[in-house]
Amino acid sequence: SKRWQQVHLGAITASYHSSPFYEFYFESFEKIISENHKFLIELNMALTENILQILKLRKAISFTSIFEPVDNRPYDCRYKIAPKVKSSFQAKPYIQVFGTGKGHIEKLSIIDLIFNMGPDSSEWVMGSSGERENRDEKRGCSFRNSL
């Protein structure tokens, strides 16, 4: 059914059409969401790759062939951020269309950042000084100044 696609694209348009970079990025999301993906993972991967490209982040995405239980490895971040668990993650504020009079609204989708910050989204993700707190070499899960 295409109904869910129309509903989601309509919600994105209603929420972000007045954002400064909506017209530059919406089409890429629309194209991906409108495709007929057989499996949800195909949609998720296409969106993830699009977001990484927009953010100019070169990250290799790989899959395990079996489930690996969570252990205390410092680089296993699968359950470090969860909706009902308090996290040490602190997002830096950025200008939002929604923010007028309400201050910065946290915990929104990455498309909120992209549609509001455009090409500067990458710098925001990497940290305002261009240095990330969570460097790949550390392979840790520090969330300060990281996404």
Defining traits:
mainly alpha, 147 residues, globular
Provide a concise account of the structure shown.
This protein has five helices and no strands.
Uncertain residue ranges? 128-140, 142-147
Work out the radius of gyration: 17 Å
SSE string, helices as H and strands as E: HHHHH
Q: Structural class, from secondary structure content?
A: mainly alpha
Number of strands: 0
Shape: globular
List the helices and strands and how they pair.
Layout: H1 3-16, H2 22-34, H3 40-54, H4 110-117, H5 121-126
Helix pairs in contact: 1-2, 2-3
Overview of the structural elements:
10% of the residues are buried. This protein is mainly α. The protein has helices at residues 3-16, 22-34, 40-54, 110-117, 121-126.
